Amino acid sequence: MHDILPDRVGLWQHIEDTARAVFAAYGYREIRTPLVEVTELFKRSIGEVTDIVEKEMYSFLDRHGDSLSLRPEGTAGCVRAAIEHGLLNQPQRLWYRGPMFRYERPQRGRYRQFHQIGVEVFGLSGPDIDLEVILLTARLWHRLGLQALRLEINTLGDAGERQCYRERLLDFLRPHADRLDPDSRRRLETNPLRILDSKDPTTQAILAEAPSLLDGLGAQTRAHFDALCAGLDALGIPYRINPRLVRGLDYYNRTVFEWITDRLGAQGTVCAGGRYDSLVEQLGGRPTPAIGFALGIERLVELLGQVDSGANPSVDAYLVALGDRAEIEALRLAERLRDRLPGLRLLVNCGGGSFKSQFKRADKSGARYALVLGEAELELGVVGLKDLRLTGLSAGQGMVGEQRNLDPEALIAVLAAELS
Ligand code: ATP
Ligand code: MG
Q1: Per the CB 3.0–4.6 Å rule, which of 87, 98, 243, 319 could disulfide with 212?
Q2: What is the spatial distance between Cα 110 and Cα 298, in angstroms, rounded to a whole number?
């Protein structure tokens, strides 16, 4: 679990703000659910024989003896909330954001507390909404300036089709059982579709000859998938059909998709999702089709950090004040500036110090401007303004550089023009 330090937080906020704006542009509304749910909820939704439920959950007994878990993902809580609060009598387009917890082996792109931004849409069953959700993600990458992501899609069919496929896959895999990696061998009995997702090279080599899910699809599943592909073609979203793409959670059916990059090593999936038409009913709600995705913010941050260092200064101006009277007047001035210029990011010198040491701090803060209030300025009823970049003023130089003396209103006008 990691601390996110101030130098890095700018990138996080940029991703979060951009996502919020994109969601708003598609009419999606935010939902916030608790970090803790009853363990049973995750067992029933994610599936008993998934990695997450078998070995990754932070579960504990509360004082009453009930088993609770830190949420390992966001969908289960969203579905529970939607059922509990009667949101499902009309279509819902929702998004969420926040920390998730999985007891995984920590490595690059894989942490025990990580953060997701996700979307869940309830009550719409057609390929049009699948397309919308994918378009929305594509817009998000575009707004973030990310080009290195590629889209892979697949269809898992419906429960019956998956059952048939399960049999065909088992027939194919059983003769190779002793060469499969241990996890995959175990999954032969429990969750054979997940073997398709194995990262083990030998298992992957065996799978090269495996039957494809796509061959056994019924007409309806086929039509749904074809319509999605046609929509992606029509809207110019490049994609690759990957017949071995499955998801690590049990509740998916039909459309699944991932956005993948080659720039993050082994943990290349930045965003993953799909349709889960039976989950709402499975959790006690009325039958409601659904589709959603989640993206990993840490992986996006790393990707964006490669594009841009994110080293934006966090303040616009630094207010230097010398003398007891000036210090109080500086606070008065600062409050006035903040009243009048809501966008201004103003740092006020604290802890006194000579002009020289205060200018040193101003320089270090990254601020564009130093505002100066000393006895001389107070006498004249003005504030000194120095452009720290224009004058090339550096820490050691102290007072050199041009100072313009402005009355407060003129100062406000200059700063306002600068901020707009
Ligand atoms: P993976 O195959 O990488 O384990 P998953 O199938 O477990 O992924 P999901 O549960 O679908 O992943 O989560 C969606 C996204 O959340 C992932 O694509 C990834 O970007 C991010 N994510 C998942 N687990 C972690 C983690 N432990 N640390 C950081 N990000 C994660
Ligand atoms: Mg995982």
Answers
A1: 243
A2: 9
- List the domain range (segments joined by +) for residue 117: 6-158+218-304
Cα dihedral across residues 296, 302, 308, 312: positive or negative: positive
Number of domains in the chain: 2
Q: What pLDDT, on the 0 to 100 scale, is given for residue 314? A: 82
What pLDDT score was predicted for residue 307? 64
Sequence-separated (6 or more) residues with CB below 8 Å from residue 58: 69, 70, 72, 101, 102, 103
How close is the Cα of 72 to the center of ligand 2, in Å? 10
Distance, in Å, from the CA atom of 131 to the CA atom of 134, rounded to the nearest integer, reads 5
CA of 377 to the centre of ligand 1 (A): 58
Same domain (yes/no): 290, 387: no
What ligand has the least distance to the C-alpha of 107? Answer: 1
Q: Is residue 341 part of a domain?
A: yes
Residues 6+ apart with CB under 8 A from 400: 391, 393
Q: Which residue's alpha carbon is at the smallest distance from atom 29 of ligand 1? A: 110
Asked whether the predicted pLDDT for residue 346 surpasses 50, the reply is: yes
Residues with CB under 6 A from ligand 1: 73, 102, 104, 109-111, 114, 116, 247-248, 267, 269-272, 294-296, 298-299
Q: Which of 41-50, 75-84, 225-234, 349-358 has the lowest mean pLDDT?
A: 41-50
18 belongs to a structural domain:
yes
Q: Atom of ligand 1 at shortest distance to CA of 111? A: 28
- Protein residue closest via CA to atom 6 of ligand 1: 248
pLDDT, one tens digit per residue, over 67-91 is 999 999 999 999 999 999 999 999 9
In the 8-state DSSP scheme, what is residue 110? B
Residue 32 belongs to a domain with what CATH number?
Answer: 3.30.930.10
**DSSP string over 198-249:** ---HHHHHHHTTSPPGGGG--HHHHHHHHHHHHHHHHTT---EE-TT---SS
Looking at ligand 1, which atom is closest to the CA of residue 299?
A: 20
User: Packing angle between helix 408-419 and helix 324-340, nearest 10 degrees?
Assistant: 50
Per the model's pLDDT, the better-predicted residue between 16 and 305 turns out to be 16
